Amino acid sequence: TLFLILFETLISYTYCLSMPVPFIPLKFCIIGEDVMLPCNCEMEENIEYLVWQIGEHRVVDAFIKGKRNQDEQDEEFRNRTKLFFKEKKGNCSLQMSLVSIADEHIYTCIYETSSVNQVHVSLQVAANYSRPDLQLLSEPKIEGVAKTYTCTTKGGYPMGKIHWLLNNQALNVTMDARDNITGCYNLSSSLTLKLFKSDVLSCSVENPRL
Q: In the chain, is it the N or the C terminus that has fewer CB atoms within a 10 Å radius of its CB?
């Protein structure tokens, strides 16, 4: 149909325009929360098309010829997105709910008036790690023998790092990181040493995005 031809032409045309991209602003979101991807078209009054997409042809949401169109919408975004353009002219932003790791992409807002305009937004997500759990793995019965301690934390994203401190001095200790079924990380680190009564041993977790 004429509608599909126009729609496909718009997507192909904007893909050709999208390279190179000199600067792409970042938008951060906590996994499981909602995020607003900004696209300001305030100065444009007669917008014919508004399309949010990933890459060349993956449509996140679209507003075509006066109404929202979900026929071409990617299944992963069904019932998770909202456009505000119809209610508030000049606001071409996209709201996305229940954000997950799979939503990390560069998104392109495309709107057409007398020319085709593009706004790019890179979405990065993060998840807080649980409070680090420091435990003594074994309790030797012999006094003065080195003991093994472990520090664990769960459910964070992206991959973080466990830090050990002994009397406020950093220790260089290896770490094991495992990706669980949600895509988040569980971290674990162990060390063996002999502590005296005055020693203070602690561990913490670092998330590079939080």
A: N
